[in-house]
Amino acid sequence: MRPRRRADVTRLRVGIFAGGRSAEHEVSVSSAESVLRAIDRDRFEPYLIYIDRDGRWHLPQGSAPVLAEGSLASLVGTETPADVVRHPIADPSLPARATGPAGALQPRAALRSLADTIDIAFLVLHGPFGEDGTLQGFLEMAGIPYTGAGVLASAVAMDKVVFKDLMRGHRLPVLDAVWFRRSTWRTAPDGVLAEIVARLGARSVVKPARLGSSVGMTLAHVPDELPAALDEAFRHDTKVIVEAYLANARELECGVLGNDQPVVFEPGEVRSHHELYDYEAKYVEGLADVIPRAAIEPELAARIKEYALAAYRAVDAAGLARIDFLVAGDDLFVSEMNTLPGFTLTSMYPKQAELAGLPFPDLIATLIELGLAAGTDGRTPSAGDISEKDR
Predict the structure, then answer these.
(1) Residues spanned by the domain of 222
(2) Which of 204, 216, 268, 377 is surrounded by the most beta carbons within 10 Å?
(3) Is 14:122 a contact under the CB 8 Å cutoff?
(4) Residues above pLDDT 70, as percent of the chain
């Protein structure tokens, strides 16, 4: 896959993908708003591609204007999703069935239109249908370069069960856990509850297996709280993971940037004012302290950076990722990997990058360059890479 460049322009056309069908829709829109305000418009021509909650794509008629703070996020809750993009368009050459309300496009039709409109996709979609490899595969098939991890790394990091198994295979420490399908919970609830308590003890953390931003996460203090916690998690996903609870744990986060030669940032720390670093604590101002440079011993910082790099390489990540850790005493555990971390000005990843010498506009430009390089090198084998004798 090679990026398409127009010979008649000097600015690269960047499609900023925001919204999406996941429960992290609002977070994605906030990230996109920050990128649209910070992107270097002397080098890049940004286009906002908004995906509404029903999966319809809204394409702008022209490049995105400079946004006032909150102007994009404030429109997410409106009854008409098309209002988020002031000028949605539909290609008049497309059949009517390819379009949705107010000129919104169905995904395949939208990609056909985008293929000649943008040079690269800048992804700030969080959660399923944006961070899990599905959109990445779609863009691969369309030949559109994109920022961040490829199909495999995105899918592996999104699924907490698969990610844990991979970390164990690479001898990286993870908390003990069990997982279940919704169908098992419905047909054999007593067996599920018994297995959780026998394996993990009285206290455990229940999470949807394939969702981020701590959506649907609950701490079950006693076994009697497990049914409600499982019901809540299964409301968001058909696959749920239950982890051992680590008392008095510190939440440390470590950003990684790069393709073949990644750079690892110094670890940061999040101090939640809640018992857990849940969705509310993450996104309600004042409920958590985000510290981009953690006050920890150099030996612990070195271990975290070593594990972060090992995890990044284990999933074959590219572009960027944030690896989260739990620390209690001398115990250090790899918790999760986020291949499209939050990208607001208050998010951990941009703050760590700035401390490493990359202000937000430069970070955006670097990710675009890394995405183009990954596209030029080829994330997946093409038909031309397979010789006749290998067919």
Answers:
(1) 177-244
(2) 204
(3) yes
(4) 76
